[in-house]
Protein backbone atom coordinates (compact mmCIF):
# COMPACT_ATOMS: atom_id res chain seq x y z
CA UNK A 1 0.00 0.00 0.00
CA UNK A 2 1.26 3.48 -0.85
CA UNK A 3 0.81 6.36 1.58
CA UNK A 4 0.91 9.87 0.10
CA UNK A 5 1.53 12.87 2.39
CA UNK A 6 2.48 16.49 1.89
CA UNK A 7 5.73 17.97 3.18
CA UNK A 8 4.08 19.63 6.19
CA UNK A 9 2.52 16.34 7.34
CA UNK A 10 5.78 14.51 6.69
CA UNK A 11 7.62 16.95 8.98
CA UNK A 12 5.02 16.56 11.70
CA UNK A 13 4.82 12.76 11.51
CA UNK A 14 8.26 11.68 10.30
CA UNK A 15 8.73 9.03 12.99
CA UNK A 16 5.43 7.36 12.11
CA UNK A 17 6.19 7.51 8.39
CA UNK A 18 9.58 5.90 8.96
CA UNK A 19 7.92 3.13 10.96
CA UNK A 20 5.45 2.53 8.13
CA UNK A 21 8.29 2.40 5.59
CA UNK A 22 10.17 -0.06 7.81
CA UNK A 23 7.04 -2.21 7.86
CA UNK A 24 7.16 -2.40 4.06
CA UNK A 25 4.77 0.39 3.07
CA UNK A 26 5.80 2.85 0.41
CA UNK A 27 5.55 6.46 1.58
CA UNK A 28 5.44 9.21 -1.04
CA UNK A 29 5.99 12.81 -0.02
CA UNK A 30 4.56 15.44 -2.31
CA UNK A 31 4.67 19.17 -2.77
CA UNK A 32 1.86 21.13 -4.44
CA UNK A 33 -0.04 17.91 -5.18
CA UNK A 34 2.93 16.41 -7.07
CA UNK A 35 4.99 13.43 -5.83
CA UNK A 36 8.53 14.54 -5.00
CA UNK A 37 10.27 11.77 -3.05
CA UNK A 38 9.70 8.17 -2.02
CA UNK A 39 10.52 6.94 1.48
CA UNK A 40 11.36 3.23 1.54
CA UNK A 41 13.27 0.95 3.85
CA UNK A 42 16.85 -0.02 3.11
CA UNK A 43 17.39 -3.71 2.49
CA UNK A 44 19.87 -4.69 5.19
CA UNK A 45 20.73 -7.95 3.45
CA UNK A 46 22.93 -6.14 0.93
CA UNK A 47 26.49 -7.32 1.58
CA UNK A 48 28.98 -4.66 2.55
CA UNK A 49 32.17 -4.34 0.57
CA UNK A 50 35.26 -5.66 2.26
CA UNK A 51 38.52 -3.75 1.96
CA UNK A 52 41.40 -5.70 0.52
CA UNK A 53 39.49 -8.23 -1.54
CA UNK A 54 41.47 -7.71 -4.74
CA UNK A 55 44.07 -10.47 -4.62
CA UNK A 56 45.81 -9.22 -7.78
CA UNK A 57 46.46 -5.77 -6.27
CA UNK A 58 49.94 -5.52 -4.81
CA UNK A 59 50.89 -2.49 -2.73
CA UNK A 60 54.66 -1.98 -2.56
CA UNK A 61 56.29 -1.59 0.86
CA UNK A 62 57.76 1.78 -0.16
CA UNK A 63 54.44 3.26 -1.29
CA UNK A 64 54.84 6.25 1.01
CA UNK A 65 58.55 6.78 0.31
CA UNK A 66 59.56 10.19 -1.07
CA UNK A 67 59.67 10.48 -4.86
CA UNK A 68 63.05 10.68 -6.60
CA UNK A 69 64.08 14.27 -7.31
CA UNK A 70 63.61 14.02 -11.09
CA UNK A 71 60.05 12.61 -10.76
CA UNK A 72 59.14 15.14 -8.06
CA UNK A 73 60.34 17.94 -10.36
CA UNK A 74 58.18 16.55 -13.19
CA UNK A 75 55.07 16.61 -10.95
CA UNK A 76 55.76 20.08 -9.61
CA UNK A 77 56.43 21.49 -13.08
UniProtKB/TrEMBL annotation:
<protein>
    <recommendedName>
        <fullName>Antitoxin</fullName>
    </recommendedName>
</protein>
<dbReference type="InterPro" id="IPR051416">
    <property type="entry name" value="phD-YefM_TA_antitoxins"/>
</dbReference>
<comment type="function">
    <text>Antitoxin component of a type II toxin-antitoxin (TA) system.</text>
</comment>
<dbReference type="InterPro" id="IPR006442">
    <property type="entry name" value="Antitoxin_Phd/YefM"/>
</dbReference>
<comment type="similarity">
    <text>Belongs to the phD/YefM antitoxin family.</text>
</comment>
<dbReference type="InterPro" id="IPR036165">
    <property type="entry name" value="YefM-like_sf"/>
</dbReference>
<dbReference type="Pfam" id="PF02604">
    <property type="entry name" value="PhdYeFM_antitox"/>
</dbReference>
Amino acid sequence: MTVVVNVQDAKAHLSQLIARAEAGEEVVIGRAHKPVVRLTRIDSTTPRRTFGTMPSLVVPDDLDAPLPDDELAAWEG
